[in-house]
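Can you give me the bound-state structure? Components:
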Amino acid sequence: MPRTSAHDSRTDHARRGRVPRTGPAGSPCAGPGLCVTLGAVPHAESEPPPIPDAELARRIAARPAGSATVEEAELYRRLAPRVRLYGLKHLRSEAAAADLVQHVLVLAIEKLRTGQVREPERIASFVLSTARLVARDFRRATARRHEDSALLAGVIETMPAAEAPPEPLDLDRLRRCLDALAERDRTVIVLSFYDERTSGQIARQLGLTEGNVRVIRHRALAQLHRCLELAPAGSWS
Amino acid sequence: MREQSCAEPLSGDLLVEYWQGELTETEDERVEAHYLSCDACASRLGALAGMAAGVARLMRGGSVLGFTTVAVLERAVVEGVKIGTYRMEPGQSVHCTIRPEDDCNVLRLPLALRGIERVDLDLVRVEAGQETSRLHFEDVVLDREREEIVLLYPGDLLRELPEHTFEIAVHAVDTRERRALGRYTMFHSPWHG
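Here's the bound-state model for the whole set.
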């Protein structure tokens, strides 16, 4: 499938999650509340807040088709990992999830370019609806994933290469963290994530209550997150 | 890169329940609508998904030590994990080793578990007639559906072990008594071909 590895106009701004502001450059802000132009910085030293997805979508829709390449690349970069998660959850395959990402985002950006997204500010909702439809098609094995229509080809050319999935965890470290769990906690984690069992199924297998399994799973995940230093404190505890 | 913050982050428990397929369709949709527009929560869900994938990879490599279920063994076999199986009845003894081609060994102890609240297991290692270690597992994980104790032992750990004997004792425990369910002996030798 023809794709460029990164569009030439993808700037450092986009890589940092910021997009050069539109409109007249250098217009002074009377105060933070008046700096409505996205990307404006109230204080030169501080990093500006990232531009919301909705604003990126609005800019893509507002410009001539294909000219908002920086915004398109940034929107793709943000949404790709989220759609990948949707794909992993519903298709249970890394390859299928990668296909889903490409198909859904190419469609979404094409629709934005051609003004077919009625509410660009609700781009996440549009992407979710599209992901549902495409995933359903994939499951029915009538997917259009190998259909490179002329309509889509123009969008594909300007998209960044699909980002590789995140680096897998350090398995040696994960193994040490698993070994450090209490026996029952480790069993519940393996039944959950390897055998893909729900808490109700695990409860029946092990002769526990469903509530007990949830408590064990919560405790085990909190310990694993701490051990792997994965999440900010409080997220799982 | 600085991530967008989240004013109302999804709880860790909700993310797990979503990932495990425990929510209703409506709840699924609510979670999906949130993380499709939220870098912070998508990132946390991604971490969970990565951990789940890591656990599965370790299992496929035969690298997880511990008690499990017959269903997990069956899945592992279907997925191509090479498992040396020792299935023992109470009172039995076996000679055991870890074959070069095996990822792990499994000890399977079928027992009549109905009516038994708790089972303890003692694992005593004996070398040259001397006890060298003793592990006591209180309230061990039981496969209640299939009525077995199933213990996975990674191949790399077994390959480090010298010739020795494992003496295993299993007891049913309740508030009134501690009753022997079975004794087993495993004579372990490194692989000699």
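A couple of observations. The longest helix of chain B spans residues 39-60. The longest strand of chain B covers residues 178-188.
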